[in-house]
Amino acid sequence: MSDHKANAVLNSHGGLQKVSLCFLALVLLFSFRSDHRFDGRDLLRQIYSRYHGKWYHNLQYTQDVNFFKKGKNNGTQRWFERILFPAVLRIDYVDPRKRNIDIITRDTMWEFRKGLLRNVIPGMGDGVFLSGGLYFYTLEEDERKLKDMGINLDKFFKTNWKNRPVYVLGADRENSRENQIWFDANNLYIVRLLNFFDSSRQDQILEGHVHLNGGWNETRTSIYVNDTLVLVQTNSDLVSDAPVNPADFDPGQILANKPAQ
Questions:
Q1: Is 28 left (phi over 0), alpha (psi -120 to 50) or beta?
Q2: pLDDT by residue (tens digit) across 29-52?
Q3: Cα(184)–Cα(206) distance, integer angstroms
Q4: Distance CA 215, CA 88 (A)
Q5: Is the four-CA dihedral 234, 62, 212, 86 of positive or negative sign?
């Protein structure tokens, strides 16, 4: 066989070998994809991709709070709330001039009454995180935070609830006693939170969502403990990305400007 013919044969076999290797790689790739089960981390990535870099940076609204006891209205208060993402919520109670204020940071709640510090409570920032703070951290930070909240990212399922498709993060079946976050399947905002404690279940239902400058916020939240209604919060006058003074969200500034004794 001449050198020219030998090279042709070798080139031919080399080409077939390359094609075979490419085909094998594609088979393995699609086999891997078909074996991969969509889980909570995939859902988190999908939600994060939808809103990261788009969500509004701050929000203010008026909240009317109705308290219930044994199924009957047990009082009403009006709160004025401001969120500065990713991690701070300020609540002025009833009359802002009286300086009855709570400031909730990522890991602490500071209670001020008449401008004086009354209490410091650790571990109160989950609500701000779920209201939109998660879109300002990295995915890795979000995963750690959700794990700290008792959300199992290995678990996920789809279902229909209140005549809409929803994704459930933290459980793999209905009626599971595991902490869960329920998302609207179309717009990927939170519609329900389930938290389980030793002998109780807290169920938060979020409704009446409105679109605000790249994100969403609910206008009504109903909270049940062991299937008994205990609280209804109704939000109005929602404004996103208004000019803010960061000092208003700093507990140190309130301490520095405390009223004279």
A1: alpha
A2: 554 444 557 889 999 999 999 999
A3: 11
A4: 17
A5: negative
